[in-house]
Amino acid sequence: MNRERTTCCIVGGGPAGLMLGLLLARAGVRVTVLEKHRDFLRDFRGDTVHPSTLRLLDELGLGARFDALPAQRLEEMRIQVAGTTVTMADFRRMPGRTRHKYIAMVPQWDFLDLLAEAAAEEPTFTLRRSTAVTGLLTDADGRVTGVRLRERDGEEGELAADLVVGCDGRGSVVAAAAGLRQRAFPVPMDVWQIRVPAPGPDAAHSGRVFGHFGSGQVAVTMDRGDYYQTSYLIPKGTDAGRRRRDVAELRARLGQLFGWAPELTSAIRSWDDVKMLDVTMGRLPRWHADGLLCIGDAAHTMSPVGGVGVNLAVQDAVAAARLLAGPLRRGRVTEADLARVQKRRELPVAVTQKSQLAEHDMLIRPALDGTLDDRPLPLPLRALRRSRLLQGIAAYVGGMGVRPEHAPEFARRDAA
């Protein structure tokens, strides 16, 4: 069996794992990221990069590289509730001096490639692809001391580390192996993810997210340039039964909701073109054990509402790097150090999840059960509809979040 050693072992090469690896490597910490896939090419992962993350990339000297990626800018979120149109957020009216008054829609694999390439410039960084973690190593006192792993060719090995960080998403192998279980929150929906080709430049939808709530349906579409990335929500647990119907019914519904011609919706040829996201939502009561920390989805699974999961994971990584780089350089990370990361990030996560649950109750649940049309427009939506100032404030809250993190000084670089 191959036995190796690093200072910090990060399990999972997603946004949290690669951002943490980049930051720790810039602090001079020897860090190894283990990614079970051979590349980052997965469909329907979170593609929304919010202003807080865009500002962070500027601070890291990566803003120009990110700007060179293929992207669309979403500047406005509008929804139609039982026939009434409401601007939920207008990023162009965000208060503050940030140059990023928009959400960038970038394929996640491009974003991850950028982070991996930047991290690879640091001599203490290693990314190992096609390497799956199968368990944890512990000492006689129960402290986590590393991971067991399996390479692509089936060879098994061990990687010892002063700290293991679980960034392996919902269904985290690391969290499960450590006996950490999320407290689950009830959710009313699952999501069908669909791509519909755009007919060409469309000024009516360019730079927007647009959603429909009512008449027993919820659907949200985002302009991705040459296609619309579309989410069609269904009541929780009804996917299998609905797939027994003709997919033409879904095509007709989307065409009616968004005014798409049959030649566009015909791109949905069969149910194979409709991917299902099993929505879960929860949070670990305790994000850490001795020698181990979980962040991102491994610590808190978010609702897809607002597309904030990627950005919260990145913010977790920044806080973890700032608080743990020193202890890692000194060679000893205590549980008190790990608890400080949870203390720093738990409030923003809890506030965001509470907001998401409120939106489930206010809009999604009554829209899906058909009762939304019989109710007056909820008070928060009436206020947003009347006030452009509130639309800008809502954009700031959604785009920057609660307690946004800045890059640690040791990780900052100028654009050159």
Please describe what this structure looks like:
The protein is an alpha/beta fold and 416 residues long. It is built from 12 helices and 23 strands. The strands form 5 sheets. The protein has a 7-stranded mixed beta sheet with strand order 7-6-16-17-18-15-19, with helices on both faces. A 6-stranded mixed beta sheet has the order 9-3-2-13-22-21. A 4-stranded mixed beta sheet has the order 1-12-11-10. α11 (379-386) packs across α12 (388-400). The longest helix has 35 residues, at 335-369. The chain is globular, with a radius of gyration of 22 Å. The model is unreliable at 203-207 (pLDDT under 50).
Helix and strand layout, with pairings?
Layout: E1 2-5, E2 8-11, H1 15-26, E3 31-34, E4 48-49, H2 51-59, H3 63-67, E5 72-74, E6 76-81, E7 84-90, E8 103-105, H4 108-120, E9 125-128, E10 131-138, E11 144-151, E12 156-160, E13 163-166, H5 173-177, E14 183-184, E15 189-197, E16 208-214, E17 217-223, E18 227-235, H6 239-242, H7 248-258, H8 262-265, E19 275-277, E20 282-283, E21 288-289, E22 292-294, E23 300-301, H9 309-330, H10 335-369, H11 379-386, H12 388-400
Parallel strand pairs: 1-12, 2-3, 2-13, 3-9, 6-16, 13-22
Antiparallel strand pairs: 4-8, 5-8, 6-7, 10-11, 11-12, 14-20, 15-18, 15-19, 16-17, 17-18, 20-23, 21-22
Helix pairs in contact: 1-4, 1-9, 9-10, 11-12
